[in-house]
């Protein structure tokens, strides 16, 4: 039996040297919206929301902590098994086309069920992202 009950994902935090740049990417590419962010003093933080309940916390990297190591991969083709965050969209094909028009390198694949399409890419800081087509749970089968 799990110790916790009713667990829901609350937020994901990303550390970055340029909070404004990363926030603009998530707003422009994925439709996140800025929400009220507490003043933590001494470093910049932006909170972004993706309705209905997901938030992304972008936090200015502490320059005294040293630079973050490079991501494990730079090629979106290698990302499916690597560390990433996945979101789903209902307009998958037009979303992928928009990524390509922005010059964002992508890798696409379709799951063996033939129903779920996926695109893998990186944000400006090299964090892995996956976006999948939204499939009606009734269509997935058991």
UniProtKB/TrEMBL annotation:
Entry-linked InterPro entries: Glyas_Bleomycin-R_OHBP_Dase, Glyas_Fos-R_dOase_dom, VOC_core
Name of the protein described by the UniProt record: Methylmalonyl-CoA epimerase, mitochondrial
Name of the coding gene: LOC120267043
Residue ranges occupied by any VOC domain in the UniProt entry: 8-134
């Amino acid at each position: 039996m799990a110790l916790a009950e009713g667990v829901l994902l609350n937020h994901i935090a990303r550390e970055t040297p340029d909070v404004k740049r990363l926030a603009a990417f998530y707003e422009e590419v994925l439709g996140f919206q800025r929400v009220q962010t507490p003043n933590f003093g001494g470093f910049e933080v932006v909170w972004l929301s993706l309705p209905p309940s997901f938030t992304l916390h972008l936090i200015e990297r502490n320059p005294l902590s040293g630079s973050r190591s490079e991501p494990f991969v730079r090629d979106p083709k290698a990302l499916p098994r690597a560390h990433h965050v996945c979101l789903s969209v209902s307009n998958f094909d037009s979303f992928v086309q928009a990524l390509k028009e922005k010059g964002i390198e992508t890798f696409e694949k379709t799951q063996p069920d033939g129903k779920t399409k996926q695109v893998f890419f990186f944000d400006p800081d090299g964090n892995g992202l996956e976006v999948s087509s939204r499939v009606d749970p009734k269509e997935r089968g058991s």
